[in-house]
Design brief:
The complex is a heterodimer of chains A (345) and B (289). Chain A is an all-alpha fold and 345 residues long. Chain A contains 15 helices and no strands. Chain A has helices at 2-17, 21-36, 41-63, 72-87, 94-116, 121-141, 143-146, 171-193, 195-205, 207-212, 217-243, 253-266, 272-291, 296-310, 312-331. In chain A, helix 3 packs across helix 13 and helix 4 (72-87) runs antiparallel to helix 5 (94-116). Chain A starts with a helix and ends in a 14-residue tail after the last helix. Chain B is an all-alpha fold. In chain B, 72% of the residues lie in helices and 3% in strands. In chain B, strand 1 (130-133) and strand 2 form a beta hairpin. Chain B is globular. The relative contact order of chain B is 0.21. The chains are: A mainly alpha (345), B mainly alpha (289).
Amino acid sequence: MTTNVQSDVAYHARQHGRWHWSEFAYWIAVLAVGLAFPSRYLIMTEIVRLALFALSLDLILGYAGIVSLGHAAFFGVGAYCAGLLSAHGLIDEPLLALIVSGVAAMVLGFVTSFLVIRGADLTRLMVTLGIALLLEALAERFSNITGGTDGLQGIDIKPLLGLFEFDMFGRTGFFYALAVLFVLFLLARRIVHSPFGLSLRAIKNNPLRAAAIGIPVNRRLIAIYTVAAFYAGIAGALFTQTTALASLDVFAFDKSADLMLVLVIGGAGYLYGGLIGALVFRMLQEVFQTITPQYWMFWIGLVLVVIVLVGRQRIHAAALFVPNLILKQLAGRKAVVALSDNEAP
Amino acid sequence: MTAVLTNLFDGVAYGMLLFVLACGLAVTLGLMNFVNLAHGAFAMAGGYVCAVLVNKSGWPFFAALPLAFVASAMIGAALERTLYRHLYTRSHLDQVLFSIGLVFMSVAAVDYIMGSSRIFIKLPQVLEGQFDVFGVGIGRYRLMIVLICGLLTVLLQLVLAKTRFGSRLRAAVDDPRAASGLGINVPQVFAFTFAFGCGLAGLGGALSAEILGLDPYFPLKFMIYFLIVVTVGGSSSITGPFLASLLLGIGDVAGKYYVPKMGPFVIYTIMIVILIWRPNGLFGRTAAR
C-alpha cells in the first residue's frame, strides 16, 4: 500500500518536473532575440540580470513563502565582492570571481537566515529590511574600501576564460549573463522539482502541518534562503562585471521594492515569473521614462497599486486568456497554461 | 555635563516627534495588523501643506499646524474609504506591495509639484534661538515640540482609556466579530482611527520640517524609523511606542553626537537584536493574528 502511494507520488512529481514543449520554445525564443538585436545588448543584459535576481526572490517568496524587503543586501554583497576582487586584482578570471562572490553572499545568507526564520511575516520584513539598511550603512561607513557614494574605482574586468574580451557593445556581457542565467535556472528547476522543493511548498502552504508530517521546517527554510542568497549574489556580481560599476545604490531599498514588482508582474512560484516579469518591468520602465523622464516612479507605483487592487490572480488570468485561447485551438485543452493557484502566502 | 543634558533634551524632543509621527502607524500596524509602509507619505503631505500655507500664503505658523493635521486626516480618510479598506483581509505581501506603490506615487507626485530640493518653513521669531537653564542650552523650537507632543500623548492616553470611543476602539481591536455583534460599527471606528493617525502624522510632518528635513524622499527615508517605533514598542498601549520613540530619539541623537560615523549602524543593530530577542516588541504583545 505504502509503496503504491509512494510510486504514485513519485510518478506525479516526475510528470510535473518534465520539460514542457513551451519551455523549449521559450529558451529558443530568448536565444533568437539575443541574436536578432545586436544593437540592444546592453538593455538585454540588464533584463537578464534582473531576471536572475528575480529568480532568486522567487525561490524564497514563491516556493518557501518568505517575504523579504531586503533582498538587495545579497545583490550588493555580490556586486561589491566582484568589484573588489577585480579592483585589487585578486582574481582575474571573471567566472571564478563570479562564483566566489556568489559564495560570499551565500555565507551572509546562511548567517542571516537564522534571524529571518524567527518570527512571523512582519518580523521577517523588518529584519530583512534592517539587514539591507545595515549593510548600506556599513558600506558608507567604510567608504575607504567601498568608495562610498562615488562608487568603487578601478574595476577592470579581464577577458572571460582569457578568450572573450568584454566589449563596449556588451556582446560578451550579454551571452555571458545569459549562459549564467540558463545554468542557474536549470539548477533552480532541479531544486524545486526535487523532494526538497516539494517539501518547501508544503511548508509554504502550512508550516505546522509540514512539521507534523516530519519535515524539518527550519532547516529547509535556512537551506533555501542560503541558496537564494547565492543566486542574488551572482546577480550582483554579474551587475558589476558587465557594467564595471559598484556603488551604494546596490543596497538601496528601491532595488528590493522594484524586485518585488518584477516578481509580482511575472507571478511567483513557477520560476518563469521572474524571467517574464523582468522583461515586462524593464519595458514598462522604458515607456514611462520616455513619457516622463523624471517621474517614472509615479507610474511604477501606480502599476503596483492597480495590480494589488485588481488582484494578482485575476491579472494573470487575463494576461493568459488570449494565449490560452490560441493554444486551445492548436493543441487541445491539455496545453492550456495556468499558474498554480496558491501563489502567495 | 551640560552638553550631555542638551543632547538628552534634543533626544527627547526628537523622540517625541517620532512618537507623534508614528503613533498612527502603531494603530494600523500593531492593532489592525495592516502593514502600511506609506505612513510617512501622510506625514509628508502635512509638512508640505504647512509649508505652502506659511511660505506662499503667509499664514502664521501656529494657524497652519492644525490645518496640516486636518489636510492629512482628510487625505487619510479618503484613501481609507476608497482603497485601504479593501486590503484589510489580504495577505501581508499584498499590503506591502500596495503601500510601497503608494509611497512611490507620493514621492514622484510631490517631486513634480514642489520640486526635489529640501524645503524650509518660515518660523516665527518666538521659536528661534535657544535659552539657558542652569547652563543647559534649550532650543525654543524643541521646547515647543516637547510641549505639544507631551500634551498630545496625555490626551491620546486619556481618549483611549477614558472615553467611549476609546473603549470601542479597544473592543474592535480585541475581537472585531464580537465587537460588531455588540453593535459597534467596526469599519467606522477603524476608518476614524486611521484618519486620526494620518492627521497626527501630518502634524508631525509639519513639525519635523525643521529637525528631520522635508523633501520628497521623506517617506522612504524615515519609513524604517516608524517601523522601529511600532515593532520595538509593541502596541498593547500607547506607552510602549512612546517609550520606544524616546529610546530611539535619544539613541539616535547620542549616536550621531558621540560616534558620528556609526550612527545608523547602532540603531539598526539594536533593532535587529531586539526583534530577535523579543519578536513581539519590548513592551508587550502585538496583535499577531
